[in-house]
Amino acid sequence: MSLINTQVQPFKAQAFHNGKFVEVSDASMKGKWSVVIFMPAAFTFNCPTEIEDAAEHYAEFQKAGAEVYIVTTDTHFSHKVWHETSPAVGKAKFPLVGDPTHQLTRAFGVHIEEAGLALRGTFVIDPEGVIKTMEVHDNAIARDVTETVRKLKAAQYVASHPNEVCPAKWKEGEATLAPSIDLVGKI
Amino acid sequence: MSLINTQVQPFKAQAFHNGKFVEVSDASMKGKWSVVIFMPAAFTFNCPTEIEDAAEHYAEFQKAGAEVYIVTTDTHFSHKVWHETSPAVGKAKFPLVGDPTHQLTRAFGVHIEEAGLALRGTFVIDPEGVIKTMEVHDNAIARDVTETVRKLKAAQYVASHPNEVCPAKWKEGEATLAPSIDLVGKI
Amino acid sequence: MSLINTQVQPFKAQAFHNGKFVEVSDASMKGKWSVVIFMPAAFTFNCPTEIEDAAEHYAEFQKAGAEVYIVTTDTHFSHKVWHETSPAVGKAKFPLVGDPTHQLTRAFGVHIEEAGLALRGTFVIDPEGVIKTMEVHDNAIARDVTETVRKLKAAQYVASHPNEVCPAKWKEGEATLAPSIDLVGKI
Amino acid sequence: MSLINTQVQPFKAQAFHNGKFVEVSDASMKGKWSVVIFMPAAFTFNCPTEIEDAAEHYAEFQKAGAEVYIVTTDTHFSHKVWHETSPAVGKAKFPLVGDPTHQLTRAFGVHIEEAGLALRGTFVIDPEGVIKTMEVHDNAIARDVTETVRKLKAAQYVASHPNEVCPAKWKEGEATLAPSIDLVGKI
Amino acid sequence: MSLINTQVQPFKAQAFHNGKFVEVSDASMKGKWSVVIFMPAAFTFNCPTEIEDAAEHYAEFQKAGAEVYIVTTDTHFSHKVWHETSPAVGKAKFPLVGDPTHQLTRAFGVHIEEAGLALRGTFVIDPEGVIKTMEVHDNAIARDVTETVRKLKAAQYVASHPNEVCPAKWKEGEATLAPSIDLVGKI
Amino acid sequence: MSLINTQVQPFKAQAFHNGKFVEVSDASMKGKWSVVIFMPAAFTFNCPTEIEDAAEHYAEFQKAGAEVYIVTTDTHFSHKVWHETSPAVGKAKFPLVGDPTHQLTRAFGVHIEEAGLALRGTFVIDPEGVIKTMEVHDNAIARDVTETVRKLKAAQYVASHPNEVCPAKWKEGEATLAPSIDLVGKI
Amino acid sequence: MSLINTQVQPFKAQAFHNGKFVEVSDASMKGKWSVVIFMPAAFTFNCPTEIEDAAEHYAEFQKAGAEVYIVTTDTHFSHKVWHETSPAVGKAKFPLVGDPTHQLTRAFGVHIEEAGLALRGTFVIDPEGVIKTMEVHDNAIARDVTETVRKLKAAQYVASHPNEVCPAKWKEGEATLAPSIDLVGKI
Amino acid sequence: MSLINTQVQPFKAQAFHNGKFVEVSDASMKGKWSVVIFMPAAFTFNCPTEIEDAAEHYAEFQKAGAEVYIVTTDTHFSHKVWHETSPAVGKAKFPLVGDPTHQLTRAFGVHIEEAGLALRGTFVIDPEGVIKTMEVHDNAIARDVTETVRKLKAAQYVASHPNEVCPAKWKEGEATLAPSIDLVGKI
Amino acid sequence: MSLINTQVQPFKAQAFHNGKFVEVSDASMKGKWSVVIFMPAAFTFNCPTEIEDAAEHYAEFQKAGAEVYIVTTDTHFSHKVWHETSPAVGKAKFPLVGDPTHQLTRAFGVHIEEAGLALRGTFVIDPEGVIKTMEVHDNAIARDVTETVRKLKAAQYVASHPNEVCPAKWKEGEATLAPSIDLVGKI
Amino acid sequence: MSLINTQVQPFKAQAFHNGKFVEVSDASMKGKWSVVIFMPAAFTFNCPTEIEDAAEHYAEFQKAGAEVYIVTTDTHFSHKVWHETSPAVGKAKFPLVGDPTHQLTRAFGVHIEEAGLALRGTFVIDPEGVIKTMEVHDNAIARDVTETVRKLKAAQYVASHPNEVCPAKWKEGEATLAPSIDLVGKI
């Protein structure tokens, strides 16, 4: 029912990345962490501010071994022009993925049928292609990348410490919990 | 496809709230903002820390005119005992809703079939019963209520300012954007 | 149509038993007699008195080579807390099985759809996993474990004496009947 | 799923009762308590002992305002002969209902398809025709009417005291429980 | 459409025969002629007179190498008692077959759904299990075994004289007809 | 399942009767008793002997207020010629019904698909059009009209004496049985 | 859609031919030309005149290597009597085929459902069993065998001269046409 | 099954008739006799000879009050050119109907699917639009209009003399038969 | 099957037109001629040259009372940017319609499923919304607007002169043909 | 959805070509370029002018290695006559294909169901049988072969220069475009 803990569906798409057109697919997501960020449409209002926000945290994502993917239902041609004409978007060093076939927006459950556009959705995906967190907003409400970074770090921590869980508002370096029968009913 | 901008489905459930058993339904959510927070199970590990986190922000939620609902697939009987025995949960002054019929976990798409429990999901719902934001995690990764407050405030702002949108990482009091054709391609 | 003389369906569940969480399944029921006792919900009214009644006859059940399983739709986490907080339930030395997936309540036909809880049902099962007696009550009416012991003994007697049947209100040690054509129409 | 708390299905059947053939139906069960006792077949082994057991408690049933119905898949013709030829069955002053159409055995879920006979099933039914308790055995294991009387009394008690429940092994005259939130988690 | 010249369907049933309970099946009908006689119910009105009629002709049937089977939807238990208590039925030296599963009454098309009983049907079956004659009456109208004997003899005659046919009201020893083209249009 | 006690299905057919072609239908059967006798084919072997047998008892049928109908799948044209050319058939004063559409052979369940002809079937039908007795033979075995007369008389007797039944081999004038509970198990 | 140039469907039927009953089938039609003539019913009005007409041309059919088959839905028994009693039909030296199963009338599309009889249909069939001409009339309108002979001859001519076609009203011996592109648009 | 005695199906088509394009429909066929003659294709081999044959008998058809319709799957445009370029077709004073939609060839069952052309079919239709005779040939075999005239006359005769039938090879002015029961089996 | 002479399906879309965002629908096409021109994607190779070609003929289209619609599966946001950044596209004074929902590309049969883009298709539509001409190319082959103008003029001419048709390569002002039977077969 | 870039469906048809009847099929189209031109009907108004237009450009088509096919739903017989009688059509040296089965008009989506005729459709097909351009008109609007030649040339150019595209109104010899990322957003 939920996408959490399911595999990313197979897909193929064209992206604009560092001055080139490249193919992105479910296969290219394997082996490292991914953060997939859907936006409604190129050239619009909130989207550049969100891309800029992501760009400013890109070093952190890279340090955490994660790639960032921006996705809209526009073409990669539009993404090139967007990158060239928007100062905010021009800061993006990660792939801007075109999804004119609506393959990705449907697979992640963020497609708006009556508009042909995406909702603002963010997904953290592990190196096996399994979705660990999701977050979707009405398009008038933008996200905060700081929180995405926190989720990515928590997801990475519990992936490498399978007997621990991250408590509320956990941030990197804070104490975690190790579930045991003794704790049941005691917290 | 997405739950965003859809109506909460009709439901009826028993909750433990301020020392009483009360009925909670879709009808009781109408007329004010709601924050629905699913947790896996009473008496377990992260859940009390998350309830405590919510309790510590409850004044803020109340000031914003929003009610908080904690939901698990346990009964309201268990919720009473949990409230009495857990110092963290005992701080909760909002309803602890029992969902042993799985009506709510299925309606919000957070049911785990093989466990009979909920995923960690948070939903901000407007006074018309329309879902505006959703956030779902693998159960080992807890949430941060600060971010939920930020989303609630943004949702409330755009609801009362229909011609504006909140940019990335917007916080109450910051500038918003007023979409217009002149901005297209210019940000 | 009836569950009598059918196999217990395959299942897997978590139970609280003697201070530990253990997995219980149809496989773990094979090789000895089982008495499965469904209760509506942890922390409620009649249930502790019934568990206490079972606990007081547990020595008898054990002498007869039978295990007792208490089942509710609560989690094993709730069962641990119930065992710790209820003096009556605390006497139980047999597994308290959690059925939050409703697998067992559905398989034994005691699920109440509109409540997500179990009816008061008791089942005597032989070492091959075949159900020999069943008894189900409206939840306001509790059972009497003495009668369950009598049924278990009768079921065991006829299992080991295939050419005999136990007459009305038979108790261990009393005379049985050996069906033969000569008795037809003569009793 | 369960027959508990469902209405008896409409039926019509011929019975032998006090030297006459009479029609029995769901309608004739309304307005008083009923105890329906299925037996495998006339002229067989355990059945006369069980009818005798019922006959010996008939005064108690009558005092409690309940009628007893014995049902087999035989005809009412066979029941007359059985009554005349069996000393045990001859004691029955209640209707011996013939069910050669298998209408009743199927409606109460006690039909054995491969034999065309009934399982040993006992049902306590309230004056509205609602089934309150059921008990079904493999045919080699007979019942104890004492326990049926106890269940009838408990069912009658909670019917007339809607805010009380009968605890384990409750017998007429003993204390009952009045469920309240204060008892939750305290017994 | 008709049962004439079709195979008896596979069946298994319990019968009372010469003081014993025996299994009767389609297999036990193979290798000799069979006369299957359905009756509505044991202990009733016409049935004993018809069984007596059959019993008085049993020597003839045996001489013709045919077995007689009486079938009702009662159990073999009832048949034993009937045999013991009815002077008329007590003369029967052939199997009294119980059909409480309604397998035989349905297979021979004589089942009365609303009563669960058989119509008065008589079937002559050859040693290959093929039905050669059938006769079915409303239950108020009894049969005459003399006519059944006549049919059996005619069926046996044409079985052993494949080029002849028995004319109207043929009785054993009378002339038959040998069909040939010369007779067409000449009789 | 059985045709006994069902209504004759609506039909229309042409018959040769007393030198004329007349229409026969289910309507023309209402108001008096009918004896419907199917034969395989005009101009063949047994059929004339059976028609002659019927003709010789026709006075008896008429006295009993019954009409006789001979039916084959031939046309009424063939029946005229048969009547003219066969001395035996020429004795028939009752309708010879043509059924080339196979309407009647199918309605009475006596149609032989692979031959397009009828089985030898005899049916006694009451004045309401309800079938009371049926008899069907393999075509090599002819019937005896004496027995048909006996059945007709018995059917008429019980129709006018609804509280009596005709015992085995009953013939007009003999004693009948009046079913009463006192007789049950006593004959 | 049309039967022209389709294979005769497989069939088996009994015919009266030269004083014998013989089996006729699709196989017996292979290897020579066939003329199949359907008639409504034996013993009727036009049919004998049509059979006589066919009989008078039989020498011509035989010379052309063709067999004639008369078919009605009567039996072969009726056909024998018809042949014996009708002076016109008695002239027939070709098979009179009985079709009481309606196999042939349905296969050639000449069956009248509401009468169970054939329409007047004539079919010329080649030695491979392929239908080359068909002709069907309302039953009040008889055929002219002269025209059937003309069609047979034309069919045989074009079969043996595959590059020629017979023009309007062609009779044996007259000129034919050899289709060639030069004739297109020129005749 | 057969088209004989069925109504012509509704249709609309364009025809070339006496130098004009006219619409022809089932409605235009009502009120007078029609002779519908299908031909494979304009400009081909036999077709002009058949049209010429029809043209030479057109006075006879008109005297009998019948219209002649030539039909092919060509367009009415092709029919105009055919009429102008073929001396034989140019003699036609009756409508040449175009059926490029295949409506008529399918309705009369003469369509050749693999060629898109018609078989040589002739139909005589009465003033109520009911088909009385049909005749269909393999396309290499042409028809003889003399026979069509004979059929039309016979159809008209029996239409106006409902108690008579035309015997074999009947021609206008010859004796007919009046069916009566006295003739059955006598011709 | 073809879209020619069918109605444009209902649709609603956003377009960039003369510096504004406007809604375009099937309704806005009614009352004047429309030329709908699909292009694969904004910012690509041939598309600007084709838009420029259309822009250069826009005066002619306007003089003919026709509106031009450019359609791609991009958003109207992209179209604004395209118009601002491309000198060729900047010449367009007609609506640039966004079709991100793929409603129009599917309705006009030009959608490429595997790319989410349009084929190069041009449609001339009359003031009733009926499609009169269509033209679709593989995307590597561009169109020539001169030919589109010629088609529009021809469509307009025959719309206002219903008895005339435009011959091959007709251009405005040239002679047309008035179809009449006299011309059939004469051109 | 579109026919563009799909394979021509398998077909077989007869054509008139250079005084002969020849078979044309999908196989005969392989290995060279084809131009398929559908016309409504032989002998009509615009069609000859369009064939003449094609004939006048035939040398160009041949030089480009392309064959031209004219298709109507008429027969090849009509096409021969058309060629002989129309001065315009008589100029055609390419095959005139008959499609009376409607196989081709349906496969290319140009069939008019209610008329049985083709729409004016032109298709350019490459040597692999793949459709590269299509153009369909209402029948009152004729085409211009000059534009078809232009499309054929463009299709051939891009087939042999896979990295180039032909811009708007490209004519043989003019400059083409080589798509590259550098051009995106720059034209």
Report on the structure:
The structure is a homodecamer of 187-residue chains. Chain A has 187 residues and is α+β, with helices and mostly antiparallel strands. Chain A has one domain: Glutaredoxin, CATH 3.40.30.10. Helix content of chain A is 28%, strand content 24%. The first copy, chain A, is globular and about 60 Å long. The mean pLDDT of chain A is 96. At the E-G interface, loops of E face helix 4 of G. Chains A, B, C, D, E, F, G, H, I, J: It catalyses: a hydroperoxide + NADH + H(+) = an alcohol + NAD(+) + H2O.
Which outline of chain A best applies? Answer: globular
| Secondary structure tally: strands of chain A | 9
Beta-strand proportion of chain A: 15-25%
Query: Helical content of chain A, roughly?
Result: 25-40%
- CATH H-level name of chain A... which superfamily? Glutaredoxin
**Given the helix and strand composition of chain A, which structural class is it?**
alpha+beta
Averaged pLDDT of chain A: 96
Largest sheet of chain A: 7 strands, mixed
Number of domains of chain A: 1
Distance between the termini of chain A: 30 Å
Strand order of the largest sheet of chain A: 2-1-5-4-3-8-9
Which residue ranges of chain A are poorly predicted, with pLDDT under 50 across at least 5 consecutive positions? none
> What's the gyration radius of chain A in Å?
17 Å
CATH class category name of chain A: Alpha Beta
Write the CATH fold name of chain A. Answer: Glutaredoxin
- Label the CATH architecture of chain A: 3-Layer(aba) Sandwich
**Oligomer class:** homodecamer
Largest interface: A-B, 62 and 62 residues
Number of helices of chain A: 6
Topology of chain A as a string of helices (H) and strands (E)? EEHEHHEHEHEEEEH
